[in-house]
Design goal:
alpha/beta; 15-stranded mixed beta sheet; 17 strands
Length: about 475
């Protein structure tokens, strides 16, 4: 009995010490702090272990060193573009962009994201079209192929891609493949064996140093990027696996959004990939001219900024850009996301827009891939619908797109979901597009998707079963740490 009492006392003391750490030392936001205190109170012992794995901050010394190195390289360009914006010296290819100069300035200063407008964009909404185009670009690569994916499967699509990369590596093309260790759990070591033998490289992002225990499990590289020869880039929601080709019986047809980019915007993706690679791999790659072409053919006229965010930064750049976009809206807001767990600032922006008479349309999947997040998502619909926003539930397969379109003039496509994990914990990247034609096409695709949706009205929402309300309430309480 004395032993049990001693153990119980130790748990109580540890819980108190950890609670003090959460409140006074970690300086988390209030919502997250209360959520962790609940976990510690109701799950003594277990809560302590969960906090060690999920609640710690990321040590940023090495990250900040690489970030500063990257910033120094483009510092002159940043200062020159700031001056151009402030003195209104930039001539925009799309006249509507003049309305969004403050957002360009914000991303420039806060994210070191240069604005370029010599870009071409191709939009993909199916896995087949995206991967067919990607494999063609891989086949034509001359110098290097850089890839980072959150999920990589050892299946038909995964092996098709790896064989294409093996062939290019044998031809002398540099191939670097970065995959997230947690997102790609279950991926066998032999998956990259042939690629390495052919001269290619592969590295896991934040792998487990101790079997079955990863103290960095909370900080994942959720980016899905490919850069070919520093001239072609891919960014969006598709991972590598057969389900993204619509071959999974549960999910069925997979609806996502991915972009193929050409132009100087690709260089921002390249810089981010190399920083991610140097963080994860022992083989450091210098940020030299081989990966940053100086001369580009006139491939397009689309204005764009590529913005990265993650736990390596004190600010939440992508979330801030989303909010800035929402407050720009005068007519319409079209948002597609698989997870809708906004913080107070983002929810306030959406509600303010809806109550101002702006048409706010949010599209969500009709089936869950993560049940807890699914119920948390539905708990937030009450506020949105009550404010006059509209919600559409996608029923033709699974909706995984991360797309935001404002007034058919300004758009964002990338890897970030509308949740705390994407905004604060994951390494993410989004393309912000200042082009009415591209934004208009994304809005058209949204309207097309509405044909495969049913509208969830406020009246229908209020009639949901009591058990659903209970699940939503529990999930809502813990949403800050999901």
């Amino acid at each position: 009995m004395n032993v049990l009492q001693d153990v119980s006392t130790v748990f109580i003391v540890l819980n108190i010490l950890l609670a003090l750490t959460v409140i006074f030392l970690e300086r988390k936001d209030a919502r997250s702090t209360w959520a962790w205190l609940m976990v510690l109170y109701f799950l003594p012992g277990v809560g302590f272990v969960l906090y060690l794995i999920l609640g710690q901050r990321l040590r940023k010394r090495k990250l900040n060193k690489m970030l500063l190195e990257s910033q120094r390289i483009i510092e002159d360009s940043i200062e020159a573009q700031k001056l151009q914006l402030e003195e209104r010296h930039i001539i925009f290819n799309d006249p509507a962009t003049i309305n969004y100069q403050s957002m360009i300035h914000m991303n420039l200063v806060g994210s070191y994201s240069l604005y370029t407008q010599n870009n071409a964009v191709q939009i993909f909404t199916t896995g087949k079209s995206k991967f067919d185009a990607l494999l063609r670009d891989i086949e034509s690569a001359q110098h290097h192929i850089h890839l980072v994916y959150y999920i990589v499967r050892d299946d038909k699509l995964g092996n098709r891609l790896i064989q294409a990369l093996v062939e290019k590596a044998r031809q002398g093309v540099q191939v670097r493949f970065l995959y997230d260790h947690i997102g790609s759990k279950g991926l066998p070591r032999k998956f990259f064996k042939e690629l390495r033998e052919a001269g290619g490289q592969a590295a896991a992002f934040f792998p487990s140093r101790i079997p079955y225990l990863n103290l960095k499990i909370n900080f994942r590289n959720h980016r899905k990027l490919v850069i070919v020869d520093g001239r072609i880039g891919y960014i969006g929601g598709f991972n590598i696996g057969d389900e993204y080709m619509g071959r999974d019986k549960y999910f069925g047809e997979w609806r996502d959004t991915h972009l193929r980019l050409e132009g100087r915007a690709v260089l921002q993706m390249q810089a981010q990939f190399l920083m991610d690679w140097n963080l994860a791999s022992s083989g450091m790659v210098e940020l030299d001219y081989h990966y940053f072409p100086r001369h580009f053919q006139a491939v397009g006229t689309i204005g764009m900024q590529v913005v990265a965010s993650g736990p390596d930064s004190e600010s939440q750049q992508i979330k801030d850009a989303y909010i800035k976009m929402i407050y720009f809206a005068k007519k319409s807001i079209c948002l597609q996301t698989p997870y809708f767990v906004p913080d107070e600032s983002l929810m306030t922006a959406l509600k303010t827009a809806a109550m101002s008479g702006i048409e706010v349309k949010v599209m969500l999947p009709g089936k869950p891939d993560h049940f807890f997040v699914y119920w948390a998502t539905h708990s937030y619909l009450n506020e949105l619908l009550a404010a006059g926003g509209k919600c559409y539930i996608y029923e033709r397969g699974f909706l995984h797109a991360k797309t935001l379109v404002i007034d058919g003039q300004l758009a964002s496509v990338g890897t970030a979901n509308i949740d705390n994990r994407s905004f604060k914990l994951n390494f993410e990247m989004n393309a912000f597009i200042y082009d009415s034609a591209t934004a208009g096409e994304l809005e058209r695709l949204f309207d097309l998707d509405m044909q495969d949706c049913h509208e969830l009205t406020f009246e229908d929402y209020l009639k949901r079963p009591l058990m659903n309300k209970f699940k939503e309430s529990i999930a809502r309480l813990l949403s800050p740490i999901l």
